[in-house]
Design goal:
436 residues, alpha+beta, Beta-Lactamase, Topoisomerase I, Chain A, domain 4, Heat Shock Protein 90, five-stranded mixed beta sheet, 12 strands
Length: 436
């Protein structure tokens, strides 16, 4: 009989744990935890108390009507709660008002406390709060079985609470970012409208927009980085175990936030280029090892199993003079563009000495959709996106504009050849180092 009872209790605990893990919103989760705590014990009253960022007690769930003549603003003994938090272990009082250890606390006498069970909510090493249960009608209301049950419940509840708190924080940050983006988008749209008034107005508006974009992206990069770091920590389960559904949504949120950060970085780079504030740190680069290193990054961009990636490098190429970070940015932008529009076939990088012999020429060939002929003259313009057949590819129209600016700053040229339904080939040149 005892084994059957224990099996039923274990089954119920597992069901409760699954329900808590599946509840992403904090408020309903806390109410559910309190409901289960009361059902597991002989408690008359229950209080779920969290510790806020200021270290203050935050009574989130209160179950039970106030006792006659009781101060509703202070329904429990804060001393017991704070002792539980400090000790980080369960306190069980069989007859609180008669126990010597607690005689010094006036609140225990004033509240006429008898049976009290106070269990800490601990996630890893952080005390999130407590579950406080009491019965003022009888002594010895809570035995060791009740204590064991509540400690098991509390350990699972703490993980669920921490995940829900992180979810709330993430949602708050995303909402704030969305408001910022919407506000800034309205400002940019207004600037675009004003730019159409005339050429002189357009020049001034362009200057203002560049400065505004620089400020906007500067303000957005820090919170976006915080969101990405938090999501990466959640993906690594540093805050506690996650369910498959939680992992799926964490991955989606991470991909979306990284895409926004790439947009922000593109806008920031372009604004710095236009203002002449982006400095190149050039050095002599050996082409072959540099390309091999870049290809490792490019492999991570290829999400299509039917697209073959390859690099063909002419032997014994002269070294080039370039900023390695910016040269890699040019190549990665062109690879990203190629993979975006190529569902099958190949993406090939060829590197060889140009006809002038003073430049190394790079070309990236893909077998993608190709670019409409009417779009070719504008493909390197800011915010321009070719009208592809699918027209479903996310992008800002900034990547190729940045490539043109960076290649030009290096003293090279960039151009494209394309045929609809066959594919595109992007070319650019970088100066060689012709002297020892």
């Amino acid at each position: 009989m005892k084994n059957t009872e224990n099996a039923l209790i274990l089954q119920r605990i597992l069901e409760v744990s699954r329900r808590m893990s599946a509840t992403r919103e904090l408020a309903p989760l806390l109410h559910y935890i309190m409901q289960q705590a009361l059902e597991f014990t002989n408690a008359e009253h229950g209080y779920l108390v969290l510790i806020n960022e200021q270290g203050e007690l935050d009574f989130r769930v209160i179950h039970g009507k106030p006792y006659e003549g009781e101060d509703q603003n202070s329904p429990v003994s804060h001393s017991i709660i704070r002792e539980t938090v400090q000790r980080q272990k369960t306190l069980i009082l069989k007859n609180a008002g008669e126990e010597d250890e607690w005689q010094q606390y006036k609140s225990i006498i004033q509240l006429r406390l008898r049976s009290v069970l106070c269990v800490p909510l601990i996630a890893q090493t952080e005390v999130l709060g407590v579950i406080y249960l009491e019965n003022r009608k009888m002594v010895n209301a809570f035995d060791s079985s009740a204590q064991n049950l509540m400690e098991t419940l509390a350990s699972q509840a703490a993980i669920a609470i921490k995940n829900a708190q992180l979810n709330e924080r993430q949602q708050k940050i995303q909402d704030e970012l969305e408001l910022i983006v919407q506000e800034r988008t309205r400002e940019i749209d207004q600037l675009r409208i004003e730019a159409e008034i005339g050429w002189q107005t357009a020049l001034e508006t362009n200057r203002l927009r560049t400065a505004l974009l620089s400020n906007i992206t500067h303000d957005l990069r820090s919170p976006l980085t915080i969101v990405i770091n938090t999501l990466n920590m959640m993906r690594k389960e540093e805050f506690g175990p996650t369910t498959p559904l939680q992992r799926e949504w964490i991955e989606r949120s991470l991909n979306a936030t990284q895409q926004v950060l790439r947009l922000v970085n593109d806008i920031f780079d372009l604004s710095k280029l236009e203002q002449g504030e982006l400095e190149l740190f050039t050095e002599v680069i050996a082409v072959e090892p540099f390309i091999k290193q870049t290809m490792k990054i490019a492999e991570g961009l290829n999400r299509h199993e039917h697209v073959h990636l390859e690099a063909q490098i002419e032997p014994q190429l002269l070294p080039i003079l370039a900023d390695p970070d910016r040269l890699q940015q040019i190549l990665i932008n062109l690879f990203s563009n190629a993979f975006k529009f190529t569902q099958q076939g190949h993406v090939i990088l060829r590197v060889y000495l140009a006809a002038s012999a003073n430049f190394v020429q790079f070309e990236i060939e893909d077998t993608g959709e190709g670019i409409p002929s009417e779009d070719l003259p504008y493909i390197f313009e800011r915010f321009h996106q070719a009208h592809t057949q699918l027209h479903k590819h996310l992008g800002t129209g900034l990547g190729l504009a940045i490539c043109r600016e960076l290649v030009t700053r290096h003293g090279g040229e960039i151009w494209v050849e394309s045929q609809r339904g066959v594919g595109s080939t992007f070319y650019f040149t970088i100066p060689c180092v012709t002297h020892p």
